[in-house]
Amino acid sequence: MDTFDDSLAFVKFGVGQPVLRKEDPTLLRGEGRYTDDINLPGQAHAVMVRSRNAHGLLKGIDLSEAKSMPGVLAILTAADLDEAGFGPLMCPLNIPQRDGTPMKTPPRWSLAKDKVRFVGEVVAMVVAETALQAKDAAEAVMLDIEELPAVTDPEAALAEGAPQLHAEAPGNLALDFYFGNAESVARAFAEAAHVTRLDIDSQRIVVSAMEPRSAIGSYDAAKDRWILNVGCQGVFGLRGGLAKDVLKVTPDRLQVLTGNVGGSFGMKAPPYPEYGPLLLAAKKLGRPVKWTDERSESFLSDHHGRDHKRVAELALDKDGKFLAVRLTGYGNAGAYIYPPMPATTNAVKNLIDVYRTPAMEVNSKIAFTNCTPVAAYRGAGRPEGNYFMERLIDTAAREMGIDGIELRRRNHIAPEQMPYKSPANNVYDSGEFRAILDETLQISDWDGFEARKRESAKRGKLRGRGVGSYLEVTAPAGKEHGGIRFEPDGSVTMLSGTLDYGQGHASPFAQVLTGLLGIPFERFKLLQGDSDQLKAGGGTGGSRSGLVGAEAFLEASRKVIDQGKQIAAHVLEASVVDMEFDKGRFRIAGTDRGIGILELAKKLHDGLALPADVPQTLDVAHVSDTPPSSFPNGCHVCEVEIDPDTGTIELVRYFMVNDFGTLINPLLVEGQAHGGVVQGLGQAIMERTVYDEQGQLLTGSYTDYALPRAQDAPSFTIQSHPVPAKTNTLGVKGCGEAGCAGALPSIMNAIVDALGGKHIDMPATPEKVWRALNAG
C-alpha cells in the first residue's frame, strides 16, 4: 500500500485543515434543492392509501367513489403492479441461520395484496391533478379488511399460538442467528470466579429525518426508461435494487437522481414501496407523478431503528480479567425483513469493544411482528454492542468491588498487541485505548467529581458520572467510484459513488485532491446524485465515506497524473520518462519548462490534437477496491444531575477523546461527533415508540414522541488522539456513527451511578427514574 505524503497536509485547504463546508452558503440561504423543491412540467400528484389495521385479511378495495372525485387521474392497486409484471421488494442481504440455511425473506409487495401486516402499509395509490385532490380521493377509498390479532413484541411473536404474519416464516421466526464457540464460552462461564448478568434493551426508535421522504417518478417513452428523483443514501445501489427486484429490468433502464438530502441515518437507503407505483403511474399517464410524505405518515412508514431485547453476560476471573462475553435475545424485524445486521453481525463485531476477551457468543432470534419494519439507524448495532459491554463492565465492577476504571485498564488491548485478532474475527490494526481513557479522565477532572457531587447535594440534586469507551467496526470493503472530470469552464468535477445527506463531502474530498493535484480548492465541485454518471458506488453508510471516497480519489488522481505526463510530454516535445509532476505542474526534469495541469486541460478542451497512442483526456472514471473496515475508537465521560422529586435528568458536563485516525477536516469531524452524541442522548433519556395491543402506534407524532432539542444538549469538550489506520493510504478511520457509540454507555452509566447502581433501561425518562428512586 502506498503511503500518503504528510507534507500535503500543510497545503492551504489541504488534508488536516478545518475548512468550512462548500455547500453551507447555499443551504443557509435556503437555496438547497431537495426532492420536494423539484416540480417537473405537467406533473401530477400522488397520495398513498395506508392500512389502519396492524394485521388483517384484505378482502376488497372499493374505488368507486374515489375514482369519480375531481381531478383524479388514476388509482393503482396491487393488481396493476401484477399486470405490469412488477416484482416485490426483496432483502438485499441474506444472513445464514444457525443451521446454515438461509433466513426467511418473505416478499414485500409495493401495494399490499391479500393481507396487511402493519399500520401504515401501502394498499393503494391515488393520483390526481393536485395533492389536495389526491388526498381527498385517498380518504374516499374504502378498504374491506378482516381484522386479525396483532403481535408487536418479538418474544411474544415467537411464542406458541402467536398470530402468524407470513406463511413463509412459520412461528414468525425470520432468523435464528448464532456466532461463537459454544464449548469455550460454556467452559469460561463454568470456571469464572464471577458472572455479571443484565437484562438490557435497546428500544425502538423513530428515525425522524428533518426532510420527509419524497419522490417523483417519470417515464421517457422515446428511450423506454424510467427516471426517479428521490432522496436517498446512494443512487447506484438504489437503482440496482429497484430495477432488478421491482421493475424487473436491467439497471440502464432506470436513472436515479438525488439532490440535497435532509438527513437519513440509514433510513432512506433502501427502495421503498412508494417508488414502484410512482414509476408505473408515470408510464401509464405519460406525465411525471410526485409524492411527498406527511410527517404523520413518516412515523408509520419510514423504517424504524434499534429494537433489541437482550440478556448480556460477562465472565471474569478472580482478578477481574475478562474470560468470555455472551449476548442472547431477540430482535424485532417488524412486518418485513431488511438486513438484520444490528442484532446479528454488527452485534458480533462491536461487542468486544476495546477489551481482551478470549471468547464470545451471540445468539439472536429475529422475529416478524405487526410493527413498522426496522432497518439501519445511525450505527446499526454498533452503538448497542459497545453499550452492552460498557454496562456489563460497570455492573461487574460494582459487584466485585473493583474500581470501574481499574477494571477497564486490566482488560484493555495494548498497542504492542496490534494487530489484534478478536474472537469476532476482526483484526484491529491500531489503537491506544488506555492512553485515550487516561486522557479523557484528565480533561474531565475525574478526580474532582466528589467535590462536584457534594455541591449538587447542597442543591438537592443527585449527581452521577459515567465513562463509555467504544470501538466501532466500520463497513467492510467493497467497490467505489472515484471520478475526476476537467470541465470547459476550468472547474473540476469530482464524481463519487458515496452520497452526502448532511455530512459535507464536497470539502474533504476537495481537500484531498487539492493537495495531490495542486488545483485550487475552489475549483472543485462534487457530483454524487446521478446514477447515469457512476460506474459503481456503495452509497454512504457504516462510517465509510471518508475512507473509501478519499481512497478512490487518491487512486484516480494517480491515473490523472500518469495520463497528464503522457499528454504533457507530447506538448513539451519531451520523453515521458523525463516528466515530473509537482504542485499542479508538469515539468521536464532538470529544466524550468513545464505546463500547469489546468492549462493542459484547457488545451485539450480547445481541440489539442494528440497521437492515437497518447491518452486523449485527463479525465478519469475509476472504480476502486476499497480498504477493509477501520476501527474508530474513543472514550466519553458524562456527568448528570437528577432532581429526585421529579426524576428529571440534566447532562451537566460532557467530554470525549476520539481516535478517528488522520483527520481530513477536523471541523466536520467535530460536527459529526456532536450530532452522534445528541442522537445518543435522545435514545438514552427520551425517545421510544409505543404500540398498543392492536398494533396501533401510540407515539405517532411529536406530541407523544420526544426528540432532543438544543436546550437538552450539554456543552461538549472534544479532543482528538489520532492513531492513523494502517490499512488505507490516508490513515482515516471513519467518524459518522461514533458519537452514538460513546454516548449511550457514558450517559446511562452516569444515570445508574446517580441512582446508586440500580440498572434501568433506556430511555431513562423522568417517570422511570422517579419510580427507580422510590421503589421499595
From TrEMBL:
It holds the Pfam family MoCoBD_2. Residues 29-149 form the Aldehyde oxidase/xanthine dehydrogenase a/b hammerhead domain. This is Xanthine dehydrogenase family protein molybdopterin-binding subunit. InterPro entries: Ald_Oxase/Xan_DH_a/b, Ald_Oxase/Xan_DH_a/b_sf, Ald_Oxase/xanthine_DH-like, AldOxase/xan_DH_MoCoBD1, AldOxase/xan_DH_MoCoBD2, AldOxase/xan_DH_Mopterin-bd_sf. Keywords: Molybdenum, Oxidoreductase.
